[in-house]
């Protein structure tokens, strides 16, 4: 089997690091998950949401103080979504999870840590924002990479993270599969050959989406990065005139999911704070911050107001086209499933 390359392993997968919200206060224990009069909750999230939650946590702290009179601090952890889910199951003390896809949260539910019905606890299948999958290329797009079929051409070096650890990488794989399906119909052998050709061109496969961005942008490897739209937008802002965003003809509506980790929140006395933290993501103020950070707001009015940022005409399939996440995971990403089949040849 081809050896899976994994650079820049993210220590944040299992380690919790404090964001700009600050560290824990000194003092006695509080019944509300913190010390003294300060409540503390932990948000275990996936790779590219670091900047989003730094900004969101600041406005949420103000909102929570106004609503309850209490101070709150938020501890953040980031890494590949699948690894983050497993870290919670293995003991990371998350009060909430904000992960790349529904299936990662289902893994925590199946461990008995999240109550059933979590998907309907918050609006829109507990997805306060969405994204899609695009290409990031260097300025000038020297190899004229415009669609998925350009990525399988000889000599094209592709950067994408590993579906075994990254939720974003699973969305990447499914978006490419949908494109091939529209080209080849129900001929699964040809679709698999297409995916095999694509992954034969992958030169670096990091464990998470942010690591893949670092490989492409900071380390200068590859001709194209298959990326979350928000990662591509952030790169364009940070490195003006150095990169271009290419939207393929077919992509996928990626729906990151959020949930309270009930077992931990009950133990920590943070159920109320955790629920408010996730509820407020749907507020107009939070939805604006979501848009400013390159994610697609769930609020249609705010999304349309940012139509100059997002390509709202791209053809998007959804996870329902793959039978939902449970079926999609078993078919494509479980051990011995289609991804392992095509990547081992």
Pick out its properties.
345 residues; alpha/beta; D-Maltodextrin-Binding Protein, domain 2; 2 domains; 6-stranded mixed sheet; 5-stranded mixed sheet; 40% helix; 17% strand; globular; disordered N terminus
Structural description of this entry:
The chain is α/β, with parallel strands linked by helices and 345 residues long. It has 2 domains: 11-129 and 258-305, D-Maltodextrin-Binding Protein, domain 2 (3-Layer(aba) Sandwich); 133-253 and 314-343, Periplasmic binding protein-like II (D-Maltodextrin-Binding Protein, domain 2). It has 14 helices and 15 strands. Strands 1, 2, 3, 4, 5 and 13 form a 6-stranded mixed beta sheet that branches. Helix 1 (50-68) packs antiparallel against helix 11 (284-292) and helix 2 (81-89) packs parallel to helix 3. It is globular. The relative contact order is 0.18. The model is unreliable at 1-31 (pLDDT under 50).
Low-confidence stretches: 1-31
How many β-strand stretches? 15
> Which whole number gives the mean pLDDT?
91
What is the helix content?
25-40%
The separation of the N and C termini measures 7 Å
- By helix and strand content, what is the structural category? alpha/beta
Main β-sheet description? 6 strands, mixed
CATH class of the largest domain: Alpha Beta
Helix segment tally: 14
Query: What is the percentage of strand-forming residues?
Result: 15-25%
